[in-house]
Amino acid sequence: MPTPIASASASPTPSAKPEATPTTTPTATPTATPTATPTPTASSGGSITSGGATLKITATLWKFDQQTYEVPADKEITIELNSSEGLHGIKIEGTNVNLKENGTVKLNLKAGTYKIFCSLLCGPGHGNMSATLVVS
After folding, report:
1. What is this structure's pTM?
2. 23-32, long-range: CB within 8 Å, 24+ apart, which pairs?
3. What is the CATH number that goes with domain 8-25+44-135?
């Protein structure tokens, strides 16, 4: 079955509203794509391959594994969410990104700073569960 494509309007803070186009890919049916050996980057929480950037975000009880994530601007990136403790989701302010639990999304973002929030009510620390995404 083809992967559904949804358009998103990405708006970095505080500049104008550029556009992003996310593509949601279910994690239950992964596909293998030959790529170069990933090189982890401490600042991004992910890896860069010949096919693009992958940002891995791990959500635990009332926090993300990093306070700040970095990805390249104007290039396709894949964001992978892993809820390792409890049920979590992420919304990225200024976009249509709304991942639930262990989801994946592909999109292009314009340079700017975006806020990431937990989108599933996960308990007493839910309101403080946020991080920053720097796109440069």
Report:
1. 0.63
2. 23/105, 23/106, 23/107, 24/103, 24/104, 24/105, 25/104, 25/105, 25/106, 26/103, 26/104, 27/80, 27/102, 27/103, 27/104
3. 2.60.40.420
